[in-house]
């Protein structure tokens, strides 16, 4: 791909229009956004200052209550229109995502479809998750107890570059449906995807000021954002997540942290190896391995290890690397120098410790400045960096194990716990093994897509992989505060005059005993 093809994705006027939508209260320095495909400048966005964050939160807050006052089904229908807008503008969005993030078109396409699925899911099921519900009361018939769900106010979203469309928009949609405003801080590398997507939200009917975008450096913009919003959704590295979580704690706001992983797949001897190889090649090298739920470790039963490895290496070698705005190449570029440096450092360290590089292990400047070959390692020692730290690149190790117990033990030998995968002909066995893997999600006979597309089910990490969940009921209720309203039908529950406290206490004890007995006898609530 040449520089002019990349530049044509974002004509100067489009870039200026999008950058003009960034919230700022004065002239700001510019930050240049470059395409990883060619290292060409795509455009510039303002390097926002803390004052811009304050203005963004104020504007969002001012727009929030009118939005929250709109009936829930109206807000839901705006989400349906968001899905329509994403579909009708898909090609343009895919171009921008590819140009900014350097990914293959198929990887960009998954992002667009994810937004559509998420918008449709929350438009359909969100109102039910938010509905006021009767709760069991301490004193049935006497107290009527109802739980209501109110928007928190302004939700801040700090997002990474690897899935710039999905993570910016799909995590925001439930917040909007719940009646909140949002302030989005996209990653430095991928602001134009976020800005164009937010423009599409407005075209779909999201009120003008309800969603604000601030661009710039993480510390300068991200930290004041945490300090001024009512809830924070953070997706990024575990290291930054710790800083952001402690800031959120300081400001006493709730937050979800979607962080890194060192995901493991387990291949049992009865697995269909063709499916396992196909699934795990995709699961390891999708988005050039820059995917939080991709696999960096594969443990294969020794009985099928040799055959699996031969087929896995051959399938890896058949992947086409390339920079093209079409569905040709399978694997795209790494996003930036720092990413390439990490990948090279992990592979160099593994080599020094005696690892065999079965395939890959080289950068590919002939394809583009930041391309790296899909790489398969064997004999990776447990003390190698690539065995324990997240590489976040196209590098996976394959290791033989004696049995399922060893596979589970090795899969769990990490502080991360984001995603896992089990391959076996016996789905029941796969499911019970999945329950032994310490991760927020596990796919059986699949890499991750079926799990991710199960938008009704919560998704997130345990341990160093994070706190909180996206998707499903948890993924929208986190953007709300609960309010419990308990109405007494008879007398207020205070000692009744003129009874002495001793008599009232005895009466209360008798009532509690009677209630316990009744509950034993029936499912009486
Ligand atoms: P990162 O932590 O460097 O940056 C993420 C975001 O945080 C960026 O917008 C950045 O500007 C901002 N930031 C940086 N310092 C900050 C600070 N002090 N205060 C507030 N914000 C700050 O992560 P990255 O390199 O952009 O993304 C890659 C990481 O994200 C990987 O570890 C990957 O596993 C993880 N990730 C996790 C998920 C998930 O769902 N669990 C999804 C995608 C990516």
TrEMBL record:
GO terms for biological process: aldehyde metabolic process. Residues 28-485 form the Aldehyde dehydrogenase domain. Keywords: Oxidoreductase. The keyword Calcium does not apply. The active site is at residue 258. It comes from the Archaea. One of its GO terms (molecular function) is oxidoreductase activity, acting on the aldehyde or oxo group of donors, NAD or NADP as acceptor. InterPro entries: Ald_DH/histidinol_DH (IPR016161), Ald_DH_C (IPR016163), Ald_DH_CS_GLU (IPR029510), Ald_DH_N (IPR016162), Aldehyde_DH_dom (IPR015590), Aldehyde_DH_NAD(P) (IPR012394). Belongs to the aldehyde dehydrogenase family. PANTHER family: ALDEHYDE DEHYDROGENASE-RELATED (PTHR11699). This is Succinate-semialdehyde dehydrogenase (NADP(+)). It comes from Haloarcula limicola.
């Amino acid at each position: 791909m040449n520089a002019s093809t990349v530049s044509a994705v974002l004509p100067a006027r489009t870039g200026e229009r999008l950058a003009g939508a960034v919230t700022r209260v004065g002239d700001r320095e510019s930050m240049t956004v470059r395409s990883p495909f060619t290292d060409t400048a795509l455009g510039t966005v303002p390097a926002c200052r803390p004052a811009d964050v304050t203005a963004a939160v104020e504007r969002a807050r001012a727009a929030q209550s009118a939005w929250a006052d709109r009936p829930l089904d109206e807000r839901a229908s705006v989400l349906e229109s968001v899905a329509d807008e994403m579909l009708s503008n898909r090609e343009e969005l895919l171009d921008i995502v590819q140009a900014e993030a350097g990914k293959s078109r198929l990887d960009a396409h998954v992002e667009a479809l994810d937004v559509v699925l998420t918008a449709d899911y929350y438009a359909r099921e969100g109102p039910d998750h938010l509905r006021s519900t009767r709760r069991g009361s301490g004193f049935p018939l006497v107290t009527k107890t109802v739980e209501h769900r109110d928007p928190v106010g302004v939700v801040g979203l700090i997002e990474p570059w690897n899935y710039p469309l999905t993570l910016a928009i799909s995590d925001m949609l439930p917040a909007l449906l719940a009646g909140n405003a949002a302030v989005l801080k996209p990653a430095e590398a991928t602001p134009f995807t976020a800005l164009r997507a937010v423009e599409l939200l407005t075209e779909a009917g999201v009120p003008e000021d309800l969603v604000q975008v601030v661009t710039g450096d993480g510390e300068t913009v991200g930290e004041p954002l945490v300090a001024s919003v009512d809830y924070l959704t953070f997706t990024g590295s575990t290291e930054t997540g710790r800083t952001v979580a402690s800031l959120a704690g300081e400001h006493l706001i709730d937050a979800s942290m979607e962080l890194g992983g060192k995901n493991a797949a387990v291949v049992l001897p009865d697995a269909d190896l063709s499916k396992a190889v196909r699934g795990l090649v995709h699961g390891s090298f999708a988005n050039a391995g820059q995917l939080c739920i991709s696999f960096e470790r594969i443990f294969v039963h020794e009985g099928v290890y040799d055959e699996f490895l031969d087929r896995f290496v051959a399938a890896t070698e058949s992947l086409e690397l390339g920079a093209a705005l079409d569905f040709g190449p399978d694997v795209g570029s790494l996003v930036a120098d720092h990413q390439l440096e990490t990948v090279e450092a992990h592979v160099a360290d593994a080599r020094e410790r005696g690892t065999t590089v079965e395939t890959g292990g080289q950068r590919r400047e002939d394809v583009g400045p930041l391309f790296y070959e899909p790489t398969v390692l064997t004999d990776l020692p447990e003390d190698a960096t690539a065995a324990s730290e997240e590489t976040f690149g196209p590098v996976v190790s394959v290791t033989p194990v004696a049995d399922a117990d060893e596979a589970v033990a090795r899969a769990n030998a990490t502080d991360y716990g984001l995603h896992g995968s089990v391959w076996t002909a016996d789905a029941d066995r796969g499911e019970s093994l999945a329950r032994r893997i310490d991760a927020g999600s596990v796919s059986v006979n699949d890499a991750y897509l079926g799990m991710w597309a199960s938008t009704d089910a919560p998704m997130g990490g345990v341990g160093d992989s994070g706190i909180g969940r996206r998707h499903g009921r948890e993924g929208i209720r986190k953007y709300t505060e609960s309010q419990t309203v308990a109405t007494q039908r008879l007398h207020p529950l205070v000692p009744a005059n003129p009874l002495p406290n001793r008599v009232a206490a005895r009466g209360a004890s008798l009532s509690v005993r009677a209630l316990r007995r009744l509950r034993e006898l029936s499912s009486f609530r």
